[in-house]
Amino acid sequence: MRLGRLGVGYQAWFCRLAIVGCLWSALPVSAASPAGNKPPGKVIHAYALTSANDAPERDPMDWRLLGSNDGGKTWLTLDIRTNEIFRERLQRKVYITSNESAFGAYRFEIDRVRDPVAANSVQLADLELMGDNGDEDAVTPGFTDRINCRGDNPPAETVANLFDHSPGTKWLDGGADENTRASWIQWQYSFSTAPPPVKAIHEYALTSANDFPQRDPMDWRLLASNDGGRTWVTLDARTNEVFETRQQRKAYKISNETAYGAYQLVIDRVRDPAAATSVQLAELELMGQSEKDRTPTPGFTD
Fold first, then answer.
1. 155: preceding bond cis by omega (within 30 degrees)
2. Tens digit of pLDDT for each residue in 216-253?
3. Rounded distance, CA 9 to CA 200, Å?
């Protein structure tokens, strides 16, 4: 599983540190699955980490692998490691677990990096998950398009919720700038294929979340890129937009006729930054030639 960021030149997953730790969480949520279906359980027997290309002070040193079968409410520790050192860049280290139970959700929680004082972040090149006989495909989370964001709130309020066709769920990011609570969501189509496909967005819709109207986006821009995120074109810009009710859907038509491989929704300001601690949205819908044409929606399986 490649933990990469959107854009050419990024070869490692990278997370800013609030204190000394950061976590990655993967819950099997299928956009195409009917609501209420129990996600499939999978057994992880081994996993491997590969250090990133630079800055060894950012390497994970202490971590835990956790499993859950109740949607992330409670977690069982499957493996724990302390004082692990990667001696080289792009070094791969394999860890065997004694786990024989299938779980529907896993979390890899990094408790400490190699040198928290010198590091301003944590990073990894690869996280590989293996089942029976080293079978990686059986347990690796599936995705077809790369979806990324400034931040979210796992396990229940992740960026995947924006595309799950359910206004009852939401994405939430604790916006760092207290004056705006600004954030962003971006996606790139089929980053694993070359060349990646391009899709044209003619209309999009936002649905407000279930609570706290002060967290609603008020000013935003829809951007597009065809060079892997190096440069961006503004397709639409909105200011002073107000959602009058909770879970209200508002659609916006744009005059764009160009297909792009990557898009970004940049939220510049929420409704009341002083009262809000975060920004949130229930749904982000992307449409092609008609309201029913949802081909621009990024795809994922887990």
1. yes
2. 999 999 999 998 889 999 999 999 999 999 999 999 99
3. 25
